[in-house]
Specification:
Layout lengths: L7 E7 L3 E10 L2 E11 L3 E3 L2 E3 L2 H18 L4 E8 L4 E3 L17 H12 L2 H8 L8 H10 L7 E3 H9 L5 E2 H4 L5 E2 L4 E2 L1 H6 L10 E2 L3 E5 L14 E4 L4 H7 L8 E6 L2 E8 L6 H5 L3 E4 L5 E8 L2 H12 L6 H11 L19 H11 L12 H27 L5 E5 L6 H11 L2 E4 L4 H15 L4 H11 L4
Parallel strand pairs: 1-6, 6-14, 9-12, 15-19, 19-20
Antiparallel strand pairs: 1-2, 2-3, 4-5, 7-8, 10-11, 13-14, 15-16, 16-18, 17-18
Helix pairs in contact: 2-4, 8-15, 11-13, 13-14, 15-16
Length: 472
């Protein structure tokens, strides 16, 4: 497929560990994607809780956009932003952010989750929304704001906030909106009844729009740069996982996916939400996907476990790398016992080796040395436990949906972990297909092209994903 306009496209991918600005250009050899700018992003422990450094994020993105303009002398046709879900910026009357946004891992959500379910039981919430109950969801964060006495203000998830800051109108893109736990998934609208029961103002939420919506033109100082003089702003699948799955160009119905990074999102695509009792029992969630599809999946802990272990071992004096640890861990074989990777305390930041040992001890298992010398053993325990959990979730999904799964696509940064890929193939019995490492960026570009050239329906997005796959 060839575009009618060969100006470049920019994809911004906000990550909980790093943010990336990529450029798609059309060359004589076809489309070419380049990572133009990448910068680290970590939540900050402050006196007011765990926060994101929004000023740093904005500065990094501005730097990346300027670099794109220097490279793409042919001009830049559009910019789209995806990122992690649930976190948001609170806005003042002018549309500017009020302070730094909270991180979803902040402990304040523990109290707010309990308070919410005293008013609206979790079982009732699940029936209303078809969304799996997770305390990180936007609902619990908004209620935590209320419990802290903060005034209710307009709010935007971070990808939509960045688009708004660049000149776009304030919207809540559908795939991100589904992560709030405040949406009626069957109607695709805000569940105003939930807002009202919790005394949250639905007027503070922005209108829901589908992936591929053009939300305006770039404005402000960047718009004066020649390459940006006629640049559209597009809301792609603003949730990075939905964007990553949009980057899988497979029209068959026999596959599952694992979007592997800080989290592992394990699931499959459906045409309609599945809010059956078995789905609710397994806390499988229904999130919005590209082209009106549903991402039916479960959030499983991911590389978060190992990265926190690496930090602990580094502080203890040994700077292990993934490349060093993975072959050593694989050589040890399968441990005699596994851990529950989704235990609540393993989702919080901190001394991960100590937390894992505490779980082992509580279950009557021998502990591992928390010191760096035993890092290969703990790495093997984490990897085998993750693969086992993937298999559990995929078995449940196949049983509930009736799908005959034959293969599983692994996308995202974790797809480079060939040891975990092999363990996943062994545990699930499925063919493992490694997708694009930057699958979120691929899906972001595919939705942009579909919106600009055709319409952002499932078929057009899949066709553009197939066309652009060679660029990655």
């Amino acid at each position: 497929m060839t575009p009618t306009d060969t100006r470049a496209l920019v994809a911004i991918d906000l990550g909980a560990e790093s943010c990336r600005v990529s450029l798609l250009r059309w060359t004589a050899n076809g489309p070419q994607s380049t990572l133009v700018h990448r910068f680290l992003n970590n939540a900050m422990e402050t006196s007011e809780g765990l926060r994101w450094n929004l000023t740093q994020i904005e500065a990094g993105l501005d730097e990346g956009l300027k670099k794109c303009a220097e490279i793409a002398t042919e001009g830049i046709r559009s910019i789209a932003v995806d990122g992690w879900a649930v976190d948001y910026a609170r806005l003042d009357e002018s549309g500017a952010a009020i302070g730094d946004p909270y991180c979803y891992r902040d402990v304040r959500n523990i109290a707010s989750e309990g308070a919410v379910h005293e008013i609206l039981p979790a079982s009732q919430m699940r029936v209303l929304t078809a969304i799996g109950i997770m305390r990180i969801n936007t609902l619990y964060q908004l209620y935590a704001d209320k419990m802290a006495g903060l005034p209710q203000t307009r709010w935007l998830h971070l990808p939509e906030y960045i688009l708004h800051r660049l000149g776009g109108r304030a919207v809540s893109e559908y795939t991100n909106a589904t992560h709030t736990q405040l949406i009626d998934l069957h109607r695709g609208e805000w569940a105003t009844g939930i807002f009202e029961k919790l005394d949250l103002d639905p007027e503070m939420a922005s209108p829901i729009v589908p992936p591929g919506t053009i939300v305006g033109k770039l404005a402000g100082p960047l718009a004066l740069v020649p390459a940006f003089r006629d640049t559209q702003l597009i809301a792609p699948c603003c949730h990075d996982t939905a964007s990553a799955i949009a980057g899988i160009p497979d029209a068959a119905e026999d596959w599952a996916y694992i979007s592997s990074g800080t989290w592992s999102l394990v699931g499959t695509l459906l045409h309609e939400p599945n809010n059956s009792q078995p789905a609710r029992d397994e806390n499988l969630t229904n999130f919005g996907g590209a082209g009106g599809r549903i991402l039916f999946h479960k959030n499983v802990n991911g590389m978060w476990l190992l990265r926190n272990c690496l930090d602990a071992w580094r502080e203890a004096g040994r700077d292990w790398t993934f490349e060093e640890l993975l072959p050593l861990a694989e050589a040890l074989g399968r441990p005699q016992y596994l851990i529950n990777v989704d235990a609540p305390d393993l989702l919080l930041p901190g001394d991960m080796p100590a937390r894992i040992n505490r779980q082992l001890e509580e279950n009557g298992r021998p502990t591992l040395s928390p010191y760096p010398e035993d890092a290969p053993g703990m790495t093997a325990l984490i990897l085998h436990s993750l693969a086992f959990r993937y298999a559990e979730v995929l078995d449940a999904i196949a049983s509930i949906t009736g799908k005959k799964l034959k293969k599983v696509y692994i996308v995202g940064g974790g797809s480079r972990n060939e040891v975990l890929n092999r363990l996943t193939a062994q545990a699930t019995g499925l063919e493992v297909v490694r997708g694009a490492v930057e699958s979120s960026t691929l899906g972001n570009f595919a939705v942009q092209m579909a919106a600009l050239e055709n319409s952002a329906d499932a078929q057009s997005i899949a066709e553009w994903a197939a066309t652009l796959r060679t660029a990655f």
